[in-house]
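The freezer alarm interrupted the setup, so I double-checked each line after restarting. Inputs confirmed:
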Amino acid sequence: MSSEATEQRVLAAVGERRELVNAAIDEDLPMADPERLYEAARYLLKAGGKRLRPTVSLLAAEAVADVDPLSEDYRTFPTVGGEASDVDVMAAAVSLEVIQSFTLIHDDIMDDDDLRRGVPAVHKAYDTETAILAGDTLYSKAFEIMAETGADPADGLEAMRMLASTCTKICEGQALDVQFESETEVLPEEYLDMVEHKTAVLYGAAAAIPAIILGADEEVVDALYQYGIDSGRAFQIQDDVLDLTVPSEKLGKQRGSDLVEDKETLITLHARQQGVDVDGLVDSETVEAVTEEEIDAAVERLEEAGSIDYARQTARDLTEQSKECLDVLPDNEARELLCDIADYLITRGY
Amino acid sequence: MSSEATEQRVLAAVGERRELVNAAIDEDLPMADPERLYEAARYLLKAGGKRLRPTVSLLAAEAVADVDPLSEDYRTFPTVGGEASDVDVMAAAVSLEVIQSFTLIHDDIMDDDDLRRGVPAVHKAYDTETAILAGDTLYSKAFEIMAETGADPADGLEAMRMLASTCTKICEGQALDVQFESETEVLPEEYLDMVEHKTAVLYGAAAAIPAIILGADEEVVDALYQYGIDSGRAFQIQDDVLDLTVPSEKLGKQRGSDLVEDKETLITLHARQQGVDVDGLVDSETVEAVTEEEIDAAVERLEEAGSIDYARQTARDLTEQSKECLDVLPDNEARELLCDIADYLITRGY
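Predicted 3D structure, all chains:
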């Protein structure tokens, strides 16, 4: 299938579920007292977002239960064995989106980023104290929401366990990312490990937790987790490629900003191994000062070293791996859409 | 019993369990990679602390299971019905201490406090970014640890649910505390509600979660929770009284610092209701500038208004309420020690 048709199918699948997800977020994380705290906690979630991870969760549920997409109520979903039909997979999807929002709020404080999703970051719209506390509130709310899926208690507890270990890994990944900024020699494997922790585990949990609470076999749970890990890693690598290859106006920020800001990526780490003087690629020290010609020359040098192709190929390999994981699932439309999402994550233009 | 004998019994009970708790913290929260992250996360836990909350948890387990203090291994504890004898109540105690440590780290950032337990706060010993992330890591680790008590899954899930809602309430309490700083008219009931959220719910969870994972009846769980809530509120009120009545050298900080820093307490809120000009009680604007004479005069004014007696009486009433909650438990030594702890929280001299 052409990548354009894939993209259309993915955007349709996401679009068809977005309103349901947004309504569920409002239900599971309603306004409460103290108002300012809950306004700050809900602020980013209300500001939008594609809802890609919740879509992965909802499709994973449909694929595992082997039901037609959108044929079942996500709040009263049938288990795999058919013993029960009242598992709230939507709560699991919301819980993970709430965790994602918490990490964005705290990351923006740590990185001192001013903007997020086109609006001021929470610590700018409110203040740092409120942003720390808003993130902390979302953190526990995510666990409260995950506790209410109505799954068999052993499965419910296992879902809580995975949610907790996922959060720990995200923190470890963020710490590694900060650590790498001051290290001169990071191996590509170490970078991929960091990306797995920081970004991919949340995709892994988004795919695996619905299988857990629907009572799927461990083999299926593990396969969905690995699907999320591999496609999540590919997603991050594609982000690094796009930063160099997509025109600034389409990217919504200066092309090559990672290079200007000395951010290591799989591309620069590969280039270093090839003997490229990565630190000398761009002289300008700010994204305001850099010229398109400078970026063009840097990209050409990275292309000559085979570094961009290496990143693209690594992302493609991970995507193929991720799709193969899904072979253990029944052959159905939801599984196809999960494959499409994996493809989309590395073929999307921006 | 005299308050001195009570204090000795409490300190003995805490002391007998401290090394066990410290060893368990090391086991359940070991050093890991990235090292700097885990050093920062473990830093405050290693710096000490009385371990009062873990002691409450361990005594609650002994009281509920009706076993002699220190007669059973806390890692393989018998359930109430006697069906199982492998519940890890120590993990629950550690989990709550880890949550306590996370809240201290984030609170110190928010309040910009430099010192904690006699050592620099984590955001001073490391940096703010690391401190945010260290707190976030402890947060999820606490859930990971609580997930491994080996309790019946339904009970284990219920414990996770209470842990999550407790964390949400702590965040709400902290937000209320900040909000009250800019409000002129806070009612004593609102103050007690804030204290319940910010401080007491963690005592409630410390007392109730062991009962949950040991399979105790809901009535017992609720009673232990309320015991923790009432004694925790009394504890905070006593803190406010001590700030005015204990000599600075014994208090370890300037007596009356709450007044100097315009911090509202049950005492000042009562005094305002009696028409006392609380804002005019102390002219000095820093704890360095204030004199003992100024504090003496302010305390005399508050005593005349009956505000200190009001706070003391409120704390005593709450303590009596908290002890009455324990009547549903079997009459045993651990229950007596829980009563002693409630008394100790308001009779302690500093």
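Quick read of the result. Residues 32 and 81 of chain B are 38 Å apart (CA to CA).
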